[in-house]
Amino acid sequence: MTNSNGTLRLAQIDSEKQTADWLAVPYAAYADQPSWIPPLNLIEKQRISPKHSPFFTFGEAAFFIAYRDGRPIGRITAQVNRRHLDLHQDATGHFGFFDCVDDPEAATSLVNAAATWLKPHGLTRMLGPLSFSTNEECGCLIAGFDTPPAILMPHAAPWTQHLLEAAGLAKEMDLFVYRTAPDKMPSRIEKLVAQAAQFPDVTLRHFDMRRYNEEIRLLVDIFNDAWSENWGFVPFSSAEIDSLAAELRPFFRNEYGRFVLVDGEPAGFAVALPDVTGITASFHGRLFPFNWIKLIWSLKRETYRSARIPLMGIRRAWQSTPRAGALLTLLVNDLVTQCAERYKLDWIEYGWILESNRRMVVLAQTLAGPPQKTYRIYAKPI
Q: Are 299 and 274 in contact (CB under 8 A)?
């Protein structure tokens, strides 16, 4: 536990003007954690900037930093997501970007500051961490500290869970992450693929980069339909779709995406992303002046050795049919098999997957066994 005898001070900051202390907190909290990989500072600045983040087209947020003897040791956001409130009508606000050294007083002060900011907005409950929404980074890592996070996934220290619980937060939902060697498909998967191959009206096709924007919108349309009845779901907004398209385009390729079609109509999709964290681990958060060249060169040469499937789903019309498992398996198998053959990956990650999504949990466990990592969403009344 960090020495908490010094003076504790909490400050609400301007996310555009006071980013240095905000970016310093994860280094204070995780610098001695062997599996932590510093995120790229440029991207982290854009994530919290009202000028760059699509979240601010439908939400607002406050940013708080805890200082101990003048040193930034903890941070948190409090945010109001109007799209979530319009859809769920549950008077719930959110918190996110929670990082803190092992200092219970500082952590509790941060959580209380977020709750205090949310309450005058007419909210009665606080849920998170969501940074900023369920369409971005979610959850506090509670298991799987011995391996680095994959692309677009957060990290935490073993004490972070206890800090949040000591501040009065309780479990709301767990998110599971699975990893497997892509060249080792279980026999059960092979049987499901063979079953799907017998459907004469089912075909697969690659993502078409020549129609990039249209393909992204088709992907999101299927995702919004497939996930619409899941816990915490909020559909991608137009601004989020545009942002997603811009972020993925520099390193996306045809073979990174799959659509499964039934009678020629897209029924489902799966997307894999190169896990560039293995490349950026040595950058220490800095993309400039020369690390951006290393990143582009590594992507061009395909030197990454892992990947993540962050988005996958089939339309609701097919989810309750006997074909559902076979369609999903066909998608994943085709995508993963090509990864194994072309990119020689050490592992591929599936997730996150809601613990309440039993169909996806069963498929993931069939593919990969028990979860590699578990992330937790917390809630408390305010």
A: yes
CA dist., res. 378 & res. 116, Å (int): 17
Tens-digit pLDDT profile for residues 265-316:
999 999 999 999 999 999 999 999 899 999 988 888 888 889 999 999 999 9
CA-CA-CA-CA torsion sign (301, 372, 375, 135) = positive
Topology alike, domains 8-178 and 180-370: yes
β pairing state of 257-262 and 265-274 = antiparallel
Domain ranges for the chain, please list them.
8-178, 180-370
> Looking at the whole model, is its pTM more than 0.90?
yes
Q: How far apart are the first and last CA of the chain?
A: 27
Spatial distance between the Cα atoms of 184 and 177, rounded to a whole number of angstroms: 18
* SS3 at position 339: helix
Q: With left for phi above 0 and alpha for psi between -120 and 50, is residue 175 left, alpha or beta?
A: beta
Q: Which CATH topology does 180-370 take?
A: Aminopeptidase (3.40.630)
CA atoms in the 13 A half-sphere facing the CB of 19: 13
- Identify which of 172, 9, 13, 171 has the alpha carbon closest to the alpha carbon of residue 78: 13
Q: What's the CA dihedral at 9, 12, 16, 19 to 10 degrees?
A: 20
Q: Which CATH architecture has domain 8-178?
A: 3-Layer(aba) Sandwich (3.40)
Burial of 257 (0-12, 13-18, 19+ CB in 10 A): buried
**How many whole angstroms from its chain centre is CA 212?**
22
